[in-house]
Specification:
This protein is an alpha+beta fold. The chain has helices at 3-8, 52-63, and strands spanning 13-14, 26-30, 34-39, 48-51. It has a four-stranded antiparallel sheet.
């Protein structure tokens, strides 16, 4: 199984603040060990992966700004 097979089978979530009008948006998919992040406008580009602790730190920082 390739990395593309794994990420294509994930349940991707989009922010409720995003519209369907093609605006800037990221999608995330969480697994037991990592959070995968992709650009909803460029699905041909491979997503990047962040460890769950790193993602939690990012969200905590972003929520405070």
């Amino acid at each position: 199984m390739t990395a593309d097979d794994v990420t294509s089978s994930l349940a991707w979530l989009r922010s409720s603040h995003s519209s369907n009008e093609g605006g800037a948006c990221v999608e995330v998919a969480a697994t037991a060990r990592a959070v995968h992040v992709r650009d909803s406008k460029d699905l041909a580009r491979r997503p990047f992966t962040v460890g769950r602790h790193g993602w939690a730190d990012f969200v905590r920082y972003a929520a405070g700004h």
